[in-house]
Amino acid sequence: MLPSINLGFTELSLYGPMFLIGYVLASLMVRRLSTRCGVGKTDAVAAPIWGAVGLIIGAKLVYFITRLPSIIENSDKFKELIKTDLVSALDYAFGGMVFYGGLIGFILGVTVYCKHFRIDVFSVIDLYTPFLPFVHAFGRIGCFLAGCCYGIEYHGACAVQFPYNEANPELSTVPRLPVQLIEAFLNFICFAVLLYLLLKNIKFKSEERKIRQGQLLGFYLAYYIVVRTVLEFFRDDTVRGSIGFLSTSQIISILLIPVAIYLILSKRKPITGTVK
After folding, report:
1. Distance between CA 222 and CA 10 in Å, rounded?
2. Whole-structure pTM value
3. Which residues of the chain have pLDDT under 50?
4. Residues whose CB falls within 8 Å of the CB of residue 116, separated by 6 or more in sequence, listed in order
5. Beta strands 246-247 and 4-6: pairing type?
6. Interatomic CA distance for residues 147 and 2, integer angstroms
7. Going by C-beta distance under 8 Å and a sequence separation of 6 or more, which residues neighbour residue 43?
């Protein structure tokens, strides 16, 4: 665990830089592949900027929704906190991010960009899809360093004993399952498979391509829905919120199942691109 590094004049949280490293590497690979997937280099760089705005809004909004029951239950205390320490109140309400909210926000942001500039939405989405789990994997490594999204108590192989963390005092009380690193590893596998499918598909002539527009996103959602639903049972952080025995992310996973099925079974045209 290494939540931050001391730069002398300030403490730099490592979650953001880890996510940024993944984003920059993904952007470089996307730009290199863009013309082969029928997307202009300018659009390949500009669209994810709109997507990033949507990502932040979506991730923060869903996080706020998970905090809302607690805010309502303690409304008097929260109102008083707003009056005495507005920054702390905002941090409590919007201080975290929820992946699914970010994913949906990113896709919506890219879609708005494509609609505004009259670009084929699915050409851009197909290009980005393999890199969604790639960037997410770096984000989960950042979670591990920050000590958030931590796992259940675990005393077996590869158990991790986190040092004391004021933000999460309970984190260091017992050895824990490094669920963040497990998810990062599974995301890297997903990235490799999806990139392989994309590259293999665009090698063929248009009439020979078997993967249709949107199917890669459907495959990704189907894979991640299963991964996230299972891994949620091995997490021990309560900030993510829950309804009954299901966490917020598990509920969203269930709601996304029809979307994944629709994308996989839809009969759109084959993925566009140029033969190299």
Report:
1. 42
2. 0.86
3. 275-276
4. none
5. unpaired
6. 8
7. 34, 113, 117, 119, 124
Residues in the chain: 276
- Report the half-sphere exposure of 241 (CA within 13 A, side-chain side): 18
What tens digit of pLDDT does each residue of 224-272 get? Answer: 999 999 999 999 876 666 777 788 889 999 999 999 999 999 887 766 6
Domain locations in the chain?
Answer: 4-265
> Which residues, at least 6 apart from 168, have a Cβ–Cβ distance to it below 8 Å?
147, 148, 150, 237
Return the pLDDT at 276. 43
Of the candidates 221, 235, 250, 256, the one whose C-alpha atom is nearest the C-alpha of residue 179 is 235
